[in-house]
Structure formats: C-alpha cells, structure tokens
Amino acid sequence: MVEVKYFGAVAEKTKCEFEKLSFSEELSLQKLLNDLNEKYEFDSLTFSVAVNQKIVSKASDYTLKTSDVVALLPPFAGG
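RE: above sequence
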C-alpha cells in the first residue's frame, strides 16, 4: 500500500488528511497523480510532491513501491 498525505488546500479539497491506496501492478507517480486528479479534480490547485520526504518532479518517471509515502504539499509562504 502507498500512503498519500494531503496538506493545506489539497487536504481541504480531498476532505481528508491521508489515505492508503493499494495497487496490483507497478504504479508510477504520474499514474497516481492522474488517478487522484480524476477523483478530486485538482485542476486549480498548485502543489509540490514529495516521496518519502524528498521533493520530486510531478513529471518524473518514478515507480512507487508499496512502502512509499507520497505527500501533496501546497506552496509554502516565508515569514
């Protein structure tokens, strides 16, 4: 299972802070993001993606493992 964590406006859109997703075949990060976009309609949201606490490009050719934690992070404001 891959755990997906949501923060800020993304959590507001999904109405949850995290969910665990199981998959039966190899799952790429892009496929996961496409599936989540279809489910939640993220079109107007801006967010970064982290896999196991490391920021990765949404366009990267990353294959997820069952123990991975994916976080969708809103833009950060300094202060």
